[in-house]
Amino acid sequence: MGGALAMLKRRAGFGTLQVSLVGKTATLCLLYAFPLLFLGDHPGWGGTLARVIGWAFAIWGTVLYWWAAMLYLAQVRSLADGGVHT
Radius of gyration of the chain from Cα atoms? Predict the structure, then answer.
């Protein structure tokens, strides 16, 4: 993403991209995932439940971050090709 932003700034004069809701949702998922994964290290049913939910949030957060990256790259391509703000 850093390389794409540098190219966009040099070629089209743009400095930042619009923030996507997908990226914000991915961040929220990971903010929930890591503490739950730490709690999942405790023995018993509570630890098992926290571990399962933590991994679910971690997987969803990772998938959403990749999706957000693809959206940002599409936005960079659109701006670099036509200079149209999306």
Answer: 18
> What is the residue type of 48?
T
How far apart CA 81 and CA 43 sit, in angstroms, is 55
pLDDT, tens digit, 9 for 90 and up, residues 26-74: 999 999 999 999 999 999 999 999 999 999 999 999 999 999 999 988 8
Contact between 17 and 3 (Cβ < 8 Å): no
> Under a CB-based contact definition with an 8 Å cutoff, are residues 40 and 50 in contact?
yes
Contact in structure between 12 and 79 (CB atoms under 8 Å): yes
